[in-house]
């Protein structure tokens, strides 16, 4: 204990150049920033990865949370030895392992085959009219189908490397947060500890912000144990039997699940809901939403320092904040767009027909169209078609200098009062894209309000356990959060998003690929509804925690009075 007091004094006075708690907070915050930058950059590209490999949102969400498995396997054991080891040294070792895993994740880019996004390109030959209306089966279309399946099967093998890389990243991140938080709380002044921890989390939030901003830029580019201490099980039992500790952590799980869903699929939600690009959606998230979360975390730490909120009041304070968040989220259910008109999917020219929607129509009956081709075009009549062939377009204008199709012409399914019959490549704009900024700022403000609970809840965990159990308690905390929030939440949000799909893409062999279109109204209700559900669960758990905290405080005061007597 004397050694610890000497170290604490040196850290607080900073008599040695590097023995300063403020410098540790800065360096550790930068390490967390780098760790979360990696995670955010991976998630910012998840929509593109879905399209390239033909994944559902559930599958991509599971892959993006694979690193949580590697972390969960070791975090309890590593955290248990937190007060017995050189914590900064182990944090550094974890950072090196994290870097190796991130490097390993880049290998698929260099070993996989060249990725051709455009369906107008087959091998090394360009076919400007590959997706247009043709009267018979074309040889080059069959060639494309064969090469597409070969490329898909070859590229899918690189997922083994991605899985290993994600697991290594998870193992490397094990000591970073538990050791860092407990180290700061041990060696900082009690009055400064909440603020330092809030700053630590706030700095780390800039990692996801930079990750999404980097993803926004890159998406614009074409790319291609041998001993067990006998005290160990007793400590686990003591923590798991601490009802206040468990309830607080489970309440944090509800908040963390919302954050996990936001960080993984917010860009996709914005892209489909408001007809924006994945690059622009990442830009908005990185520059507006994530900085707002950082501001909320700092304000939560300042609030704790300024008003010195007691352990009994923190759950009630947090519950009130989440109730405000739920109320503020309700208007968002009405700030969205309906799905654009898509021929054969949710729209048909024959208003008297009672049969289900079908891609085949009189205007494209003479066309040999492949169902697996997804090359959407927007007709001059504001109707979207899944390919120029489905629109009955017989030819196109191809700009060889920029290697892009400019327009598709002579489209039999497109007729206007002015006899216009052409279509432009890409999706049609939705009716309320002007609501994009309002939605982003609303989500960012709500996220900032919710983040006010982040630091107080962490401080509650540190205050309800014994001094020597802090690192281990944080490890158990992060394990529970990973098992019940960070690991399942992306897959759960992905499954919910998948349930709103109205048209799945298919490969040449008939296997289901990525989703082409969603029911935007249902997507908005399900995506936001799941977040509200998690927040309601968090409120209920916090109300129970407030009652338990009052009982905990009463027993502590009674024990102190007994010892004094």
Distance between the termini: 27 Å
> Order of strands across the biggest sheet?
4-3-7
The total domain count is 1
Uncertain residue ranges? 13-17, 117-128, 225-230
What is the C-alpha radius of gyration, as a whole number of Å?
A: 27 Å
What's the helix count?
A: 20
Largest sheet: 3 strands, antiparallel
Q: How many β-strands, per DSSP?
A: 9
Mean pLDDT: 75
How would you portray this structure in words?
By secondary structure, the protein is mainly alpha-helical. The chain has one domain (18-112, 158-336, 433-564): Growth Hormone, Chain: A. It is 62% helix and 7% strand. It has 20 helices and nine strands. Strands 4-3-7 form a three-stranded antiparallel β-sheet, with no helix packed on it. A two-stranded antiparallel sheet has the order 1-2. A two-stranded antiparallel sheet has the order 5-6. Helix 11 (193-218) crosses helix 17. 45% of the residues are buried. Residues 13-17, 117-128 and 225-230 have low confidence and may be disordered.
Write the layout of secondary structure elements.
Blueprint: H1 2-13, H2 21-44, H3 46-53, H4 57-64, H5 67-80, H6 87-105, H7 107-111, E1 121-122, E2 125-126, H8 139-156, H9 159-172, H10 176-187, H11 193-218, H12 231-240, H13 243-274, H14 278-307, H15 313-329, E3 377-379, E4 384-385, E5 393-399, E6 404-411, E7 423-425, H16 436-451, H17 454-463, H18 470-486, H19 488-498, E8 501-506, E9 512-518, H20 520-564
Antiparallel strand pairs: 1-2, 3-4, 3-7, 5-6, 8-9
Helix pairs in contact: 2-6, 2-10, 2-11, 3-4, 4-19, 5-9, 5-18, 6-9, 6-10, 10-11, 10-18, 11-14, 11-17, 13-14, 13-17, 13-18, 13-19, 13-20, 14-16, 15-16, 15-20
């Amino acid at each position: 204990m004397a050694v610890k007091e000497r170290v604490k004094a040196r850290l607080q006075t900073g008599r040695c150049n590097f023995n300063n708690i403020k410098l540790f907070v800065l360096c550790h915050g930068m390490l967390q920033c780098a760790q979360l930058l990696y995670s955010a950059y991976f998630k910012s590209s998840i929509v593109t990865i879905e399209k390239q490999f033909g994944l559902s949102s559930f599958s991509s969400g599971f892959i993006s949370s694979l690193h949580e498995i590697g972390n969960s396997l070791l975090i309890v054991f590593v955290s248990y030895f937190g007060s017995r080891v050189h914590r900064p040294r182990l944090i550094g070792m974890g950072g090196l392992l994290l870097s190796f895993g991130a490097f390993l994740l880049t290998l698929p880019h260099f070993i996989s085959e060249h990725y051709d996004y455009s369906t107008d390109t087959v091998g090394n030959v360009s076919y400007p009219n590959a997706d247009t209306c043709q009267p018979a089966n074309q040889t080059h279309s069959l060639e494309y189908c064969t090469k597409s399946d070969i490329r898909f099967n070859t590229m899918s093998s690189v997922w083994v490397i991605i899985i290993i890389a994600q697991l290594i990243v998870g193992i490397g991140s094990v000591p970073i947060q538990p050791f860092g938080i407990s180290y700061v709380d041990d060696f900082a002044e009690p009055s400064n500890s909440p603020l330092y921890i809030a700053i630590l989390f706030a700095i780390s939030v800039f990692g996801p912000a930079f990750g999404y901003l980097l993803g926004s830029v890159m998406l614009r580019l074409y790319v291609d144990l041998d001993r067990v201490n006998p005290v160990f099980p007793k400590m686990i039992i003591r923590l798991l039997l601490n009802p206040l500790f468990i309830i607080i952590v489970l309440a944090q799980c509800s908040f963390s699940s919302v954050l996990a869903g936001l960080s993984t699929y917010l860009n996709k939600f914005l892209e489909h809901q408001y007809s924006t690009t994945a690059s622009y959606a990442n830009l908005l998230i990185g520059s507006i939403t994530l900085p707002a979360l950082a501001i909320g975390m700092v304000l939560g730490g300042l609030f704790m320092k300024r008003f010195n909120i007691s352990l009994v009041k923190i759950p009630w304070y947090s519950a009130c904040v989440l109730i405000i968040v739920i109320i503020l989220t309700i208007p968002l259910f009405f700030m969205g767009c309906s799905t654009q008109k898509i021929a054969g999917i949710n729209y048909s020219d024959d208003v008297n027909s009672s049969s289900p929607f079908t891609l085949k129509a009189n205007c494209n009956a003479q066309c040999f169209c492949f169902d697996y081709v997804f090359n959407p075009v927007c007709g001059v009549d504001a109707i979207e078609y899944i390919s120029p062939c489905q629109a009955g377009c017989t030819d196109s204008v191809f700009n060889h200098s920029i290697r892009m199709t400019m327009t598709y012409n002579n489209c039999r399914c497109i007729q206007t009062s002015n006899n216009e019959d052409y279509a432009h490549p890409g999706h049609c704009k939705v009716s309320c894209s002007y609501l994009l900024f309002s939605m982003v700022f609303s989500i960012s403000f709500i996220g900032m309000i919710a983040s006010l609970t982040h630091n107080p809840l962490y401080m509650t965990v540190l205050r309800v356990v014994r001094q020597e159990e802090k690192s281990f308690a944080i490890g158990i905390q992060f394990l529970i959060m990973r098992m019940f929030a960070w690991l399942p939440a992306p897959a759960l949000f992905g499954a919910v998003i998948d349930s709103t799909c109205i048209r799945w893409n298919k490969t040449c062999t008939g296997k289901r690929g990525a989703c082409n279109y969603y029911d935007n109204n249902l997507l908005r209700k399900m995506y936001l509804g799941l977040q509200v559900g998690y927040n309601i669960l968090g409120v209920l758990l916090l109300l129970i925690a407030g009652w338990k905290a009052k009982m905990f405080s009463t027993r502590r005061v009674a024990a102190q009075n007994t010892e004094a007597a």
